[in-house]
Give the backbone structure.
Amino acid sequence: MSEIVTIEPPQDRAVTLEEARQQLRLDGRDEDLLLGAKLDAAQAELEQQTGLKLCEQTIELQLESWEDEITVPIRPCTVAEIRFTTLGGSTMTLPETDYVVRRRHGFTRIRPASGKSWPELGEDGLIRITLSAGLDENDPDLAIARAAILVKTASLFENREGAACLAFDTLVGQLKCRWI
């Protein structure tokens, strides 16, 4: 079983309020609170459906046991450190020479280095993998994601009772298909 915990949340949104105002052709700021909520909802939906983290942040993948090869369920990311609970109950950082990190099929995968094996965990042991996540500003996927967020936000804002947004679904589909 695994869990993802946010250690340092993103400092910004992928799409600014000003960009959303331009998309909707809004001059005033009296609906900024509602517009911000719609932006956050659109970004959260996109990230949930694609596994992408759009903005820089620090997260922790927590595991209860070692897998032969650990596949990180979010992307893109880099491994900062791996800590685990030892048999004695203390927390230890796994040396970088004891594991290999590589990207395959768009996902980050972690396995023991050649000739190494995962260390034994203590009773009720926990593995904590600290990750730096988020798309680079120049990544083409960020442009697609930003376009998807803008059309979804506009749809949510203009159709407040809720309606399907096919443009959003199409753009999200592009982000999903690249990694199959």
Summary: The longest helix spans residues 32-50. Helices lie at 17-24, 32-50, 140-158, 166-177. The chain has a mean pLDDT of 93.
